[in-house]
Write a structure and sequence with these properties.
- The structure is a single chain.
- The chain has 473 residues and is of the alpha/beta class.
- The chain has a domain of 240 residues: Amidase signature (AS) domain (Amidase signature (AS) enzymes), CATH 3.90.1300.
- The protein has an 11-stranded mixed β-sheet with strand order 1-3-2-4-6-5-10-11-9-7-8, sandwiched between helices.
- Helix 4 links the parallel strand 2 and strand 3.
- Helix 9 crosses helix 11.
- The longest helix has 25 residues.
- The relative contact order is 0.13.
């Protein structure tokens, strides 16, 4: 696949055009979208207008942005003005936002061409994109298997070469896990580095938007474009976007890398072997390897599935059939609200709303939600201590390669365990990247995860690039 950086350079020089790149993207979508169910909405008219505007600037000799003419896919929980946005839920059928998410405005300002909205687990609640109200997305590398979730559509768009880059959101691993299963680079940024304005909230203290790309440099560039302070988001860090692309080739010489045994525990043998091989590559590249234990990470799954549903039960209360989206008429407001939510929400969303409401209810708040908050604080302290000993950590992204459809959908706990290695970073609010490294016996890609303290994205991308070079990519 041609890189985003190369496309932008060629568009800016006039060697190719944004319109030509868009047509390639649309042809790839037409060839496989019926099979894979990647795009819920294709904005051909809007994308062509964006591409023409980029080409007109080039012809006029005006400056174009760092993503000039690069096709990009947007997860369908990111608002784009006038474009249907559903969160893969029937309760938002037909809703067209009157505003755009800050990240959408930033990629368009950088010259990218937004092709359409991609499928996801309903309201980003899932690890396989099987909970979408509009059908599952299939893994382009093996359509009998899942692409991961919840950002499965965004990952599949890049893996199928429908778009060069895409945006997803990561609440408990929803960028890194599908990146691993689809053989991509996926970054979950430091909490607050990227504005959440215009992201339809699942769990506000955990959600973060980040990039998917086929290579490290493209992911770094895309994150550089979307990062930086936004006064519309009260949790946005009051800092400009960091320099990332310039540091991709910094290497890891002199860095201390912690191998965390709990971030490999329970993974398939082929995944453990890939992590060990990645550790050897980093050692050969000049890093010092340190064996570490962070036992608090074992509590991450339990804490997450109290905190995230609790916040979801509050955030999703706004979908009531009154102001926007689906409305099922009934004899009074209470009955209408109940009928709308019963029909509009899927089983997994209902499960998490009920779990979160229970955890927040009188008599159970301290026993469940309060305890989960204490575990989260312990997790933050544990990571802080680890980063006093090492510069960054390494572990598995997922316990296995992509699994087959239906393999875990009837067992919620088995599905939740897909995120056991990614959830701790969200609870700590820090950064992590998944990079493809090796393949399993099935030939499917394995993802290795690098984790760092807040604002360590440049260092993590440099580490990921070392692994990428070792893979010959």
């Amino acid at each position: 696949m041609t890189s985003a950086i190369s496309i932008a350079r060629e568009v800016a020089s006039g060697a190719t055009s944004a319109e030509a790149q868009l047509e390639k993207s649309l042809e790839a979508i037409a060839a496989r979208n019926d099979e894979l169910n990647v795009f819920l909405y294709l904005d051909e008219e809007g994308a062509r207008a964006q591409a023409r505007a980029v080409d007109e600037k080039v012809r006029a000799g005006e400056p174009v942005g760092p993503l000039a003419g690069v096709p990009i896919a947007l997860k369908d929980n990111l608002c784009q003005r006038g474009v249907p946005t559903t969160c893969s839920s029937r309760i938002l059928e037909g809703w067209r936002p009157p505003y755009s998410a800050t990240v959408v405005e930033r990629v368009l300002a950088a010259g990218a061409v937004a092709v359409g909205k991609t499928n996801l687990d309903e309201f980003a609640m899932g690890s396989s994109t099987e909970t979408s109200a509009f059908g599952p997305t299939r893994n382009p590398l093996d359509p009998s298997r899942v692409p991961g979730g919840s950002s499965g559509g965004s990952a599949a768009a890049v893996a199928a070469q429908m778009t060069t880059i895409s945006l997803g959101s990561d609440t408990g691993g929803s960028i890194r896990q599908p990146a691993a299963l689809c053989g991509l680079v996926g970054m979950k940024p430091t909490y607050g580095l990227v504005s959440r304005y215009g992201l339809i909230a699942f769990s506000s203290s955990l959600d973060q938007i980040g990039p998917f790309a086929a290579n490290v440099a493209d992911a770094a560039l895309l994150l550089e474009v979307i990062a930086g302070h936004d006064p519309k988001d009260s949790t946005s860090l009051p800092e400009p976007s960091p320099s990332l692309l310039a540091h991709v080739n910094d290497g890891v010489a002199g860095k201390r890398v912690g191998v965390v045994r709990e971030l490999i525990e329970g993974a398939d043998d082929e995944v453990v072997a890939a992590v060990n091989a990645a550790v050897a590559v980093l050692r050969d590249a000049g890093a010092e390897i340190v064996e570490l234990s962070i036992p608090e990470t074992r509590l991450g799954l339990s804490a997450y599935y109290l905190l995230a549903p609790a916040e979801a039960s509050s955030n999703l209360a706004r979908f009531d059939g009154v102001r926007y989206g689906l409305r099922v008429d009934a004899e009074d407001v209470t009955a209408m609200n109940e009928a709308t939510r019963t029909l509009g929400f899927g089983a997994e969303v209902k499960r998490r709303i009920m779990l979160g409401t229970y955890a927040l209810s009188a008599g159970y708040y301290d026993a469940y939600y309060g305890q989960a908050l204490k575990v989260r604080t312990q997790m933050i302290h544990a990571f802080r201590e680890a980063y006093q000993k090492v510069d960054f950590l390494i572990g598995a992204t997922t316990p296995s390669v992509a699994f087959k459809f239906g393999e875990k959908s009837d067992n919620p706990m088995a599905m939740y365990l897909s995120d056991v290695f990614t959830i701790p970073t969200n609870l700590a609010g820090e950064a992590a990247v998944s990079v493809p490294f090796g393949h399993g016996a099935s030939g499917l890609p394995i993802g290795v995860q690098l984790l760092g303290p807040g604002r360590s994205e440049a260092m993590l991308f440099a580490g990921a690039r070392v692994l990428e070079v070792a893979e010959g990519r």
